[in-house]
Structures are given as C-alpha cells and as structure tokens.
Amino acid sequence: MEGSGRTPWRRGKETEHTIHNRKRGPRLRFRFGVIVFIWVVVFASCFGLYMFACNLFGTDPDKESSADTTEAASDTTEPAPETTEPVTTEPEATETEPPATTAPAENVNPLPERDAKSADYFDDCIFVGDSITVGLSTYQFVPATRVYATIGLNITRVMTETVATEYGKIPILEGIEQAQPKYVYVMLGSNGIAWLSNETMLKQYHEFTSAVQEVSPDTEIVVMSIPPVTAGRENASESPIQNSDINTYNSELLKMANEYGYHYLDINTALKGNDGKLPEADASKDGMHFNKATYEVLVDYLLRHTPL
Questions:
Q1: Dihedral sign, CA of 114, 115, 116, 118?
Q2: Which domain range does residue 35 map to?
Q3: DSSP symbols for 240-299
Q4: Domain with 180 in it: what CATH number?
Q5: Tag placement on the chain: N or C end, fewer CB within 10 Å?
Q6: What is the pTM of this model?
C-alpha cells in the first residue's frame, strides 16, 4: 500500500512540471513571430514609399547612378584639352626660324668669274674715269656714248666735270641722271695717288657714288680697282707712282664697297705680273697706260666678272 501511495505523488509532480513547460513554450513563439511580422510590414512599407517616390519624380535609380558616373567621367576628361593646347601652339614658335621676308644677298666682292657676257652688255653701262677709261672708247671696245671720262680727271673734279654724251656736253652726274644706266663703273685714283691722301680720295669718291644713287636710284655701282704701274714708273725721276700705294688704296676701295653695298671689280690683280707690277710689254712708254692688247685683256675680264 505504501508503494502504491508514493507513485501517484511523483506522477503528480511530473504532470505539474510538464504543464508548466507547455504553458511557457507557446508564449515565446508568439512574441518572436510578432516581431518578425512587424519587421516585414515596416520593410515593405518603406520599400513601397521609396518606389512611389521614384515613380512620382520620374527618377530611375539605375539611370541616376549611370548619369553620376558619366558626369564624373566627363569631369576627369575635361582638363584633357588644356594639356593638348600647348602641343598645338608650339609649332607657331618655330615659324620664326624661316623669316617672312628674305633679305637680298650681300654682294660677293671682288666680283667672281661667271659666264662671259656679250659685248652688248656695255649698252647698259656707263664708265666713269680718267684717260685709262677713255681708252675703252678709243679702241672701240665700248661705245663712246657710254664712256664718261676725260684725260687727267681725278676724284676732286668728278662732281663738276663735263663730258660729251648723247645728250650733249653736260656734267657727268647729269648724264647719268638722263641715261639711268643699270650699272655705273667707276675707276678713279690713278691721277692723284701720288699726291692726294687716301682719306681725301675716299671721302670724295663716296660723295660721288652717293650722288649717283640719288639721281639714278636703280643704278648699281661697280667700284674698279686702279691698275698697277710698271717698275719703270715706280723708279721714274718725274711723278713716280708706287705699287705699294696703289695696293693700299685699292684695299680701302674694297672696304668702302663692302660697307656701302657696291660691287668691287679687281682689275689690278688681273693685269699685274708675278712681281706685282704691270709688265713693261703691256704698257705704253709712261708705264701707266695700256696698249691695245692689254685693253683686250681688260675687256675680257670685265665681261667675265659682271654682277648677276
């Protein structure tokens, strides 16, 4: 009996404990489900409001993000033209290397040898000088109307000297003004080299050539060196002339020609011998003037050493 009395008590305890556990289980499941439900409702509401707002303002989230990306890309590429601009402008600086206008080439002095011109070249020339120049027309190498020269002429009288021209007997400068030749050849200094200073002759020489350019602006000046003399003339008892003085004077003529843009014709070198003097066989008795054969050499040299 005692055994059967204990058993119901234990069962009663177990039954009471089991009932208590059963009551607690449903309460926990109910609270968790409510929380999940509320979270789902809130999330759905927020998402619905977001989509509604997007549709209301016509904004596509995908397009908006794409536009932002495009704007960012354009912002990064926009400075690119600034980096390329210096590349396009740099060649402009190199354009200064070739000048816009080319200055005329300077004269090459003494005049170099070229293909020989024909004798009618002298029709465009005027020859100014003393008795040595007169010989060009005396031996009929140059028409007399193109030779403005007189016997005994020196540089101190050239501005006022009158000569026979096709326009009558008039001053040399007036004849040049009338003729407007392409070239004026000047050979002055043989008369005066023995007593005039180089400074005086060069000063008056330049005054004359400047005057020629004033009355005939398109005319080109050809300065001729004065010729050598023979050894006999160097040692003459009366009016000796030294080739050393001639050489010094000719050097100054070359400097003047270079300074003022004149042509320079070096006939001195063409006529003197190996000893630096005019050969006796090429000269007249005075050791200063030429014979016809020497004029032939001179004229040939003139026609082979012309300006362009």
A1: negative
A2: 16-94
A3: ---HHHHHHHHHHHHHHHHHHT-EEE-HHHHH--TTSS--GGGB-TTSSSB-HHHHHHHH
A4: 3.40.50.1110
A5: N
A6: 0.67
